[in-house]
């Protein structure tokens, strides 16, 4: 063990001059997100948009699925990474109105790793893949849009038609959707 | 010192003198007993207590009665009625006032000779020059963000000479935490032993429920409250702001909406208190747990300050839910810890007015000691994050490309500044300090 304060050199009293270059220190969250972003390995259906290149904590993810029900659509998600990242997951919202069993009208997304199954070892990349998967395999068992989930379970053709209709812009099941074709 | 003054001195500090002025079988092997040590505790040693809440009140009382006279305390909170059962330095008349200020005033008037200096501020309001004045930092916090922040600050203050830690730059952290009948106390030697970031997995994540459950199949009153918090509030946004857990109007609104939802799903057990608890994420505090954990922490501070005994190595858990259980083990330092595995490396730059950013990147990619692939570079300039270059993200690359042809001087990177470099070849973002060999460019 180290002997911290041998009595001879105990003097502190704030008189020690600050080190040269007293620069702001990066937080652990900042170091980690820098790494996550630099190593984003996006599938070809996804791209990111950073409104301010100096702010790596706020960005958008754009998904243009190339297969499945949603293949002609373009969906935008907003990411906000907080100071407690990666202890807490980033806040992710879907900014595009979408007819989807796991996404509601307010843009809330039911994806387990965004809430109850988040772990610090997961990265932004994990979330990107999770979101992409939601468009390939919408999950009727964990619905946020209950009605869409029921249609998906009972009548896949009708579900497909509804998705198309919503993506072209229009009314489905009493809800209005904006056009989001790519 | 007169006869009677000496008597009372002996009476008050005799027990400490037995420990500090004699060798003992349990003492630290290198401990050199001396009367100067008590003198140091009382007049030389400067302690910072972070948090003046449940643990903080106990800590201040313990440290003051132990003989520490030079104590600072930081807390940005004000006193609430519900604090008074355990935060015993406060009285009803103090409600609404600063915890730090009231606690300091109480100790100063109650413990003769003790000088507690309060700071009614956030820890983030202070910089390195403030923190450097302390010998030991002891935390009684309820926030992980704050713990991580102070941990990062202490680690960033470490100085290395040729990669070897200069121990005089090290300030130990003693950290206590309680949750109901459970608590923990730990000693962190930043840079040497496991830090907060090394053991981040130990902190349980906040309880969250699957979104689809709270939206469709709520079973618990908590599900109803979460639904209102996560879905209804952002949708209706009654006050056009984020939820403020301390605003009774907000809590009432959430309470009423949750009650409607609970009724709809036949869920019982919803109360205003529960709403408050869920929204503010309150864990019931138990006074005795605070007392135990604070006592352990204060003892560790004493051991560190006097070197009379080997400090705890390094993490103690305590649980008195059912009987009493306690266990101490050595939490391990993580070799790839985001915070403490960083020994800032120095990169020597011949002439910053000639070296362009692309030259720097070339050095990072080609030099034998780095061999990076696609380094992303950021820094802090005037306290703000600045992305220098990142090739892997298209929208960032496009807007930082121009930096490649700028010199380090043009980019505002001064001598001794630090840049953060992320690359797939390293598990963490590295911190590189730029050392300029030519400082004075006006040599003609
Ligand atoms: Zn660490």
UniProtKB/TrEMBL annotation, chain A:
Pfam families in UniProt: UQ_con (PF00179)
Keyword Electron transport: no
Alphabetic keyword roster: ATP-binding, Nucleotide-binding, Transferase, Ubl conjugation pathway
Region described as Disordered: 1-29
Active-site residues from the entry: 110 (glycyl thioester intermediate)
InterPro entries in the cross-refs: Ub_conjugating_enzyme (IPR050113), UBC (IPR000608), UBQ-conjugating_AS (IPR023313), UBQ-conjugating_enzyme/RWD (IPR016135)
Domain UBC core: 28-172
Protein family according to the UniProt entry: Belongs to the ubiquitin-conjugating enzyme family.
UniProt cross-references to PANTHER family, sorted A to Z: UBIQUITIN-CONJUGATING ENZYME E2 (PTHR24067)
Listed name of the protein: NEDD8-conjugating enzyme Ubc12
Gene for this chain: LOC108567544
Automatic annotation (TrEMBL), chain B:
Substrates-to-products reaction catalysed: ATP + [NEDD8 protein] + [E1 NEDD8-activating enzyme]-L-cysteine = AMP + diphosphate + [E1 NEDD8-activating enzyme]-S-[NEDD8 protein]-yl-L-cysteine
Keywords: ATP-binding, Ligase, Nucleotide-binding, Ubl conjugation pathway
Domain E2 binding: 349-437
The UniProt record lists the keyword ATP-binding: yes
Enzyme type, top EC level: ligase
Pathway: Protein modification; protein neddylation
EC number: 6.2.1.64
Active site feature: 212 (glycyl thioester intermediate)
KW Nucleotide-binding (keyword) present: yes
Entry-linked Pfam families: E2_bind (PF08825), ThiF (PF00899)
Family: Belongs to the ubiquitin-activating E1 family. UBA3 subfamily.
Function, as annotated: Catalytic subunit of the dimeric E1 enzyme, which activates NEDD8.
Record-given protein name: NEDD8-activating enzyme E1 catalytic subunit
Lineage: Eukaryota, Metazoa, Ecdysozoa, Arthropoda, Hexapoda
Gene behind the chain: LOC108563720
């Amino acid at each position: 063990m180290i002997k911290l304060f041998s009595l001879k050199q105990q003097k502190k009293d704030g008189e020690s001059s600050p080190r040269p270059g007293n620069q702001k220190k990066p937080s652990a969250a900042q170091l980690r997100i820098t790494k996550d972003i630099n190593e984003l390995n996006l599938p070809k259906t996804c791209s990111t948009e950073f409104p301010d290149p100096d702010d790596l904590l706020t960005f958008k993810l754009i998904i243009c699925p190339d297969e499945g029900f949603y293949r002609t659509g373009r969906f935008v998600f907003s990411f906000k990474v907080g100071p407690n990242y990666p202890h807490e997951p980033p806040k992710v919202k879907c900014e595009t109105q979408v007819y989807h069993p796991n996404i509601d009208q307010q843009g809330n997304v039911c994806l387990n790793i965004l809430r109850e199954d988040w772990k610090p070892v997961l990265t932004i990349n994990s979330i990107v893949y999770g979101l992409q998967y939601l468009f390939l395999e919408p999950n009727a068992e964990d619905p946020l849009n209950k009605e869409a989930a029921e249609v998906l379970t009972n009548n896949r053709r009708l579900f497909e038609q509804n998705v198309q209709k919503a993506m072209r812009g229009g009314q489905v099941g009493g809800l209005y959707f904006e056009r989001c074709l790519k | 010192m007169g006869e009677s003054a000496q008597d009372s001195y002996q009476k008050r500090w005799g027990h400490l003198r037995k420990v500090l002025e004699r060798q003992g079988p349990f003492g630290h092997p290198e401990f050199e007993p001396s009367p100067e040590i008590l003198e140091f505790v009382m007049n030389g040693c400067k302690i910072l207590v972070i948090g003046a809440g449940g643990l903080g009140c106990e800590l201040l009382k313990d440290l003051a009665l132990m003989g520490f006279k030079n104590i600072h305390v930081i807390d940005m909170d004000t006193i609430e009625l519900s604090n008074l059962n355990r935060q015993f330095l406060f009285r009803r008349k103090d409600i609404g006032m600063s915890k730090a200020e009231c606690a300091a005033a109480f100790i100063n008037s109650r413990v003769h000779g003790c000088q507690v200096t309060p700071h009614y501020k956030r820890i983030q309001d202070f910089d390195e020059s403030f923190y450097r004045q302390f010998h030991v930092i002891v935390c009684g916090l309820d926030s992980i963000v704050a713990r991580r922040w102070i941990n990062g600050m202490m680690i960033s203050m470490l100085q290395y000479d040729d990669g070897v830690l200069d121990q005089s730059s090290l300030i130990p952290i003693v950290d206590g935490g309680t949750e109901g009948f459970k608590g923990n106390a730990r000693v962190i030697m930043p840079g040497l032993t496991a830090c907060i970031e090394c053991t981040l997995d130990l902190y349980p994540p906040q309880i969250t429920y699957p979104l689809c459950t709270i939206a469709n199949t709520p079973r618990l009153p908590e599900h109803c409250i979460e639904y209102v918090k996560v879905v209804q509030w952002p949708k209706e946004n009654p006050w056009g702001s984020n939820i403020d857990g301390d605003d009774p109007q907000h809590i009432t609104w959430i309470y009423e909406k949750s009650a409607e939802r609970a009724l709809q799903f036949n869920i019982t057990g919803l109360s205003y208190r529960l709403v408050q608890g869920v929204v503010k994420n309150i864990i019931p505090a138990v006074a005795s747990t605070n007392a135990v954990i604070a006592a352990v922490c204060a003892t560790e501070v004493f051991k560190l300050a006097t070197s009379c005994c080997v400090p705890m190595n390094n993490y103690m858990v305590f649980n008195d839910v059912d009987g009493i259980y306690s266990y101490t083990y050595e939490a391990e330092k993580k070799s790839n810890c985001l915070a403490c595995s960083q020994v800032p490396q120095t990169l020597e730059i011949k002439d910053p007015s000639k070296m362009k950013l692309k030259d720097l990147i070339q050095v990072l990619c080609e030099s034998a000691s780095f061999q990076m692939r696609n380094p992303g570079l950021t820094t802090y300039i005037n306290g703000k994050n600045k992305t220098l270059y990142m090739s892997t993200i298209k929208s960032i690359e496009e807007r930082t490309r121009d930096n490649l042809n700028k010199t380090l001087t043009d980019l505002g990177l001064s001598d001794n500044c630090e840049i953060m470099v992320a690359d797939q070849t390293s598990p963490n973002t590295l911190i590189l300090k730029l050392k300029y060999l030519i400082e004075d460019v006006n040599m003609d």
